[in-house]
Specification:
With 375 residues, this protein is an alpha+beta fold. The protein has helices at 86-116, 159-169, 183-193, 197-204, 267-274, 277-280, 284-317, 326-343, 347-374; strands at residues 2-4, 11-17, 26-28, 31-33, 39-41, 47-52, 61-64, 76-78, 132-133, 136-137, 141-148, 151-152, 173-179, 211-215, 218-228, 241-250, 254-260. 41% of the residues lie in helices and 23% in strands. The N and C termini lie far apart (67 Å). Mean pLDDT is 79; it is low at 109-138.
Length: 375
């Protein structure tokens, strides 16, 4: 079963993914039908994804054999291996719907850009159209929202209007999401939120080491993101792990996130937080915690996938009937080193952040206790 837009421009469907990466074209009892007349048992399905006849392919939902290991936030599902179940199909359809909206928005913007002789905007994030800023659509602004009592205020805001709204109310916070902004755009944001120029310089340049620094009343955090690149075999892959970065400026009443890299999208994370107003009520620190938790979850998922590739290498190396060249082994070594550089430096700043939070909590508890004693 598929889905079609009213104008017939897009037709999408949820497909099962074979071990070689091909998507299904149909199903038979106990089997999955693949292009070229091939078939595989349902049990061989490795996951599911969305596809559209325009050429779009959605991110994969990975099938896991144990229901206790299936973590939705890591796009893992437990399933027998045939067609996607109704719940998963609805999730995939939502991703396809987001793709359609993004594609339509991009097409409309391209037409407007040609008419105005403007520079075409870059794609910013799958599923998120750029937000309005000062009456024009900025290609770097993925999302800008005001949250009061944990609830997102209706309407569209530029970052200046959003921050003015929070300051006027004396409550809530702004979450501004940016994708690879240029120097002028980020300095404009820095002027609005009072960001330190050294941190702004770091946010402009990718390839920063993971760290957490404090500038006056603002925390600046740099996280390395990792993404496992699907491939038929680790022995023939050109890349196994790719990295990106998420920088976060966190103040008392704002969060500004700056992303570098195609795979570091945060719109699903924002959706989950918006579905939990009690959690968002706590403030900007919740967003920083959620980002860190999301990135660490990805570390674990990628590590499991790399371990599977290492098992493949191990079996091939000790198989006397199989010859394996040295290049794939060096590639795997390089990818593991890249992962270590992304993951290991984060431990120390996270410990410092936890220690800072603990000290603040103790001081707050001490003040509360003293007030109660006086009363």
């Amino acid at each position: 079963m598929g889905w079609t837009t009213d104008d017939g421009a897009h037709e999408g469907r949820a497909v099962a993914v074979a071990p070689d990466g091909r998507g299904s074209i149909g199903f038979a009892p106990g089997e999955v039908l693949l292009p070229g007349g091939d078939r595989i048992p349902e049990a061989d399905v490795v996951g599911w994804r969305g596809q559209c006849d325009c050429g779009w392919t959605g991110p994969r939902w990975t099938r896991v054999p144990d229901p206790d290991r299936a973590v939705r936030t890591r796009r893992e599902v437990f399933h027998h291996g045939g067609p996607a179940d109704p719940d998963l199909e609805n999730r995939i359809r939502a991703e396809w719907t987001t793709h359609v909206a993004s594609a339509d928005t991009t097409a409309a913007e391209a037409t407007a850009a040609v008419a105005a002789a403007a520079t075409p905007a870059r794609a910013v994030e799958n599923g998120q159209s750029p937000d309005s800023a000062g009456g024009t659509r900025s290609p770097t602004v993925v999302n800008c929202a005001v949250y009061v009592d944990g609830v997102r205020l209706p309407g569209r805001f530029s970052h200046t209007d959003a921050y003015a709204t929070v300051r006027a109310r004396g409550a809530g916070f702004v979450w501004l999401g940016l994708y690879e902004p240029d120097a002028g755009q980020l300095r404009d944001v820095a002027d609005t939120f009072g960001l330190h120029e050294l941190a702004v310089e770091d946010a402009l340049e990718a390839h920063q080491r993971p760290k957490i620094e404090r500038y006056d009343d603002t925390l600046f955090a740099v996280f390395k993101t990792v993404h496992y690149v699907d491939h038929e075999s680790p022995t023939t892959a050109n890349e196994i792990v790719e990295t990106g970065e998420i920088m976060a400026f966190v103040g008392a009443d704002f969060v500004v996130t700056v992303r570098h890299g195609q795979h570091s999208a945060l719109h699903h994370l924002r959706d989950r937080l918006e579905a939990d107003p009690d959690r968002l009520t706590i403030g900007p620190a919740v967003v920083l915690h959620a980002i860190a938790d999301h990135i660490v979850d990805d570390y674990l998922a990628v590590t499991r996938s790399v371990e599977t590739d290492l098992d493949v290498f191990e079996s091939l190396v000790f198989d006397p009937t199989t010859a394996i060249g040295v290049e794939p082994l060096y590639l795997m070594k390089r990818e593991i080193i890249e992962m270590r550089r992304a993951v290991l430096p984060l431990a120390a700043p996270m410990h410092r952040l936890a220690a800072l939070a603990t000290r603040r909590c103790r001081r707050r508890c001490a003040r509360t206790s003293a007030t109660s004693t006086i009363t």
